[in-house]
Amino acid sequence: MNTAQAGTLESMDCLVTVSQTAPGVGVKIKITGSSAVRFKSAMEKKTAEVIASMGVKDIDVSIQDNGALDIVLGARVEAAVKRMMGGDK
Amino acid sequence: MAKNALGREIPDFIEGYGKTKLFQGAFALKPEEGYRAGGKIRCVDSTCTDKRVRDIKAAITASGLKSGMTVSFHHHLRNGDFVVNMVIDACAEMGIKNLTLFPTALFGVHKKLIEHIKSGVISRIMGSVNGPIGQLVSEGGMDVPVVLRSHGGRPRAVVSGDVHIDVAFIAAPTADQYGNICGTQGKSACGSLGYAFTDAQYADCVVAVTDNIQPYPAAPVSISQLSVDIVVEVPSIGDPAGIVSGTTQVTRDPLRLLIAKYASELIEASPYFKEGISFQTGAGGIPLAVTAFMREAMIKKGIKGSFGLGGITGYFVELLKEGLVERLMDVQSFDLEAVRSIGENPRHIEISADWYANPWNSGAAVNMLDVVILGATEVDTNFNANVNTEADGALLHGIGGHQDTAAGAKLTIIAQPLLRGRIPCVTDSVYSVTTPGEVIDAIVTEYGITINPRRKDLLDACSAVKGFPLVPMEELVSRAHKMSGPTDPVETEDRIIGVVEWRDGTVIDVVHKLKK
Predict the structure, then answer these.
(1) Please, which residues have CB within 8 angstroms of residue B49's CB and are 6 or more apart in sequence?
(2) Domain B47-126+163-243: what homologous superfamily?
(3) In this complex, is the C-beta atom of A9 within 8 Å of any C-beta atom belonging to chain B?
(4) Structural domains of chain A in order of their starting residue, each with its CATH number
(5) Strands (DSSP E) along B286-383, which ranges?
(6) pLDDT digits over B29-67, tens only?
(7) Percent with pLDDT over 70 in chain A
(8) Which of A60, B279, B429, B441 is deepest in the core (most CB within 10 A)?
(9) Long-range contacts of B13-16 (CB under 8 A, 24+ apart)
């Protein structure tokens, strides 16, 4: 299974871990951490958008958040997915 | 169910709290005609020359403490305190149950109380809850709601008879055998004993717990033999490392320094920046930096202040030594320098919480205050501030002097970053209100200074300064929204787990149980 990570656990950042899954499994997003209680919907939406824009259909995404804004979250997800696909070693 | 003056829904009756009085406005409620409450009349056998008993259990027995009573504590030993746990452990072993705990504040060191809450030794808390106890309460771990009062609201409640203290336990860094105590001497020295004074005056029985017995009469005296009934010596009342911190440091974070700089500019532009200015800044990173910037400005303009108030740090002690303030009025000494200074310098005065902040006496020190710098977890477009609940809705902080200083000071400033992590500190409506916008004059963030439109005089004074960084509230809140994105609501149940009183005893807001 192909797994990759991007980000840190610094304040206002997040650690994104992505794993390729079997075709047909779909996009699964798990969010934990400091903003999860109040920003889960917004974070899920942003993550799903980035993944869709990259044409990925089957993936497990795990986000450990420490207060990342959407712009940071999006960049971390994009970087993790690119690493998973071998675009950024 | 009725709405108070801020539009918050408050039930007429809250189980475990009683009938509620609705908040009507910061200065609306006056006490009914009547007399102050008081403790029992005492009489000591004239042959008794030593009030000491063998140990804590003997003190509890002698005090007459029984199940269902109210016990009070003060928090000057902060996170180093041994006394609260020591007394409640002993009560548990003696089979005493259903106690109402009435502390001036609790700290992380008191998380041990959770077992006593679960076993029914403590059935009610009137006072701040934080950390694990706050989490437990927020999730419904207590049957009756916690009652939160400010540093001034608490003595008001005692003096006016809302709360009757059966036994007050006072941690005494120094005591003699006849009950004269003080906080500035001894291995567990904590400086001011300000919060304990009202308890000593109004409790039915007062127990001094000490680890430093001195020959009679011990001096100096903070609380005298007149109100102390029992003295008990224990090996240690606290851990010095947790009682006082080292020198408190000014923040080095450039963002916070910028906020402090803006706050200082606001003070300098205000009509209060003149000879005799008085201020309170507490011990937080930003407020301390404001003090540092103000010091420079005072030297530059040749201005001297009259007094510094509240919790005192080494930074304030420096101002006193330099002659930049004439007096310090100290209700709580935060660090070693402050403890040393209050013991040595007669211009550094110990004041009680009643003196500091009670709205219902012949005049509290906060009324004499020009400027206060405060924080808040969130502020809304009506300038209402919340310091009690966190973003997830958990009740994790006490009120402290927030309400009292805001109500008393001529210029009340809330200074803090616009976002903490992703969580905005400025919102459309705060989750729970601690202090009404009626007494808050300005919010200072890294984006500039936002002045309450109510203070047109202040707006005019600031607009007269060229290039003054004013930001309207609408702009600030829309910026916060844009950066943080939409929030999900906090999910709660109907049950009320916390009652937030305004300093006059009316209910300003309630806090609901979190949905698991």
Answers:
(1) B177, B178, B216
(2) Glutaconate Coenzyme A-transferase (3.40.1080.10)
(3) no
(4) 3-84 (3.30.230.10)
(5) 305-312, 325-333, 348-350, 371-374, 378-380
(6) 999 999 999 889 999 999 999 999 999 999 999 999 999
(7) 96
(8) B279
(9) B14/B145, B14/B496, B14/B499, B14/B510, B15/B144, B15/B145, B15/B496, B16/B124, B16/B143, B16/B144, B16/B145
Cβ-based contacts of A42 with chain B (< 8 Å): 485-488
d(CA B237, CA B188): 7
For residue B495, give how far its alpha carbon lies from the nearest alpha carbon of chain A (Å).
Answer: 20
Give B246's pLDDT tier (boundaries 50, 70, 90): low
Task: Print the SS3 string covering B160-206.
Answer: CCCCCCCEEEEEECEEECCCCEECCCCCCCCCCCHHHHHHHHHCCEE
Task: Kindly state the DSSP code that residue B81 receives in the 8-state scheme.
Answer: B
Q: Mean pLDDT of all residues in chain B?
A: 96
pLDDT band, residue B247 (cuts 50/70/90): low
Token reading at B112: 């041990």
What is residue B435's DSSP assignment?
A: B
Provide mean pLDDT across the span B240-265.
Answer: 88
pLDDT digits (tens, 9 = 90+) for B206-231: 999 999 999 999 999 999 999 999 99
Taking the Cβ of residue A11 and every Cβ of chain B, the question of whether any pair is shorter than 8 Å is answered with yes
Q: ∠ CA(A8), CA(A61), CA(B418), 5° rounding?
A: 50
DSSP state of B78: G
Confirm or reject contact between A42 and chain B (CB < 8 A). Answer: yes
- In this complex, the residue of B392, B420, B486 whose CB is nearest that of residue A37 is B392
**How far apart (Å, rounded) are the C-alpha atoms in residues B74 and B194?**
9
Read off the pLDDT of residues B418-449 as tens digits, 9 standing for 90 and up.
999 899 999 999 999 999 999 999 999 999 99
Report residue B248's pLDDT band, with 50, 70 and 90 as the boundaries: low
Q: Strand B411-415 vs strand B426-427: parallel, antiparallel, or unpaired?
A: unpaired
How far A78 CA sits from the closest chain B CA (Å)?
19
- How far is CA B143 from each of CA B98, B124, B165, rounded to the nearest angstrom? 11, 8, 21
Residues 6 or more apart whose CB falls under 8 angstroms from that of B137 comprise B125, B129, B146, B395, B497, B498
Return the pLDDT at A9.
94
User: Which residue of chain B is at minimal alpha-carbon distance from A40?
Assistant: B488
CB B342 within 8 A of CB B192: yes
SS3 B59: helix
Please report where in the chains the tokens 């009914």 appear, as a residue.
B32
Which residue is associated with the tokens 């950390």?
B131
Q: Quote the CA–CA distance of B289 and B297 in Å, as a whole number.
A: 13
CATH of domain B254-491: 3.40.1080.10
B179, two tokens: 């009950």
In this prediction the ipTM stands at 0.84
Give the separation between CA B239 and CA B221, rounded to whole angstroms: 23
More confident residue, B190 or B244: B190
Where do the structural domains in chain B lie, given as residue ranges?
Answer: 47-126+163-243, 254-491
